[in-house]
Amino acid sequence: MSNPAEFVKACVDGKVWLFCPECQESKNFNDVEHIDSEGHPSYWGTEPWWHDTRIFKCRDCETVQRSTLHLQE
Q1: C-alpha atoms less than 13 angstroms from C-alpha of 53 in its C-beta half-sphere
Q2: pTM (2 decimals)?
Q3: Please, are residues 50 and 40 in contact by the beta-carbon 8 Å criterion?
């Protein structure tokens, strides 16, 4: 998924997920409070968003977590 528009469409379609280790559950990208993202220090390819670590607040357990992105095929 090297096209940024495909990434945005996957987010809008609810196909991008994060994992909350506190809840031990996957959380939809659209259902969490996004705080920040950390770029992967050694990735310089055309799909940087898939290699970032997202920092988010889980609305269920109210904790701040880190997760990579996961795509629902």
Answers
A1: 10
A2: 0.80
A3: no
Q: In degrees rounded to 5, what are phi and psi of residue 4?
A: -55, -30
What token pair was written down for 66? Answer: 């880190």
Cα dihedral 52, 28, 15, 71 in deg (nearest 10): 40
DSSP assignment of 13-49? TT-EEEEETTTTEEEEGGGSEEEEEE--TT--SS-GG
- Which pair of tokens denotes residue 57? 């607040």
pLDDT digits (tens, 9 = 90+) for 27-66: 999 999 999 988 777 777 766 666 789 999 999 999 999 9
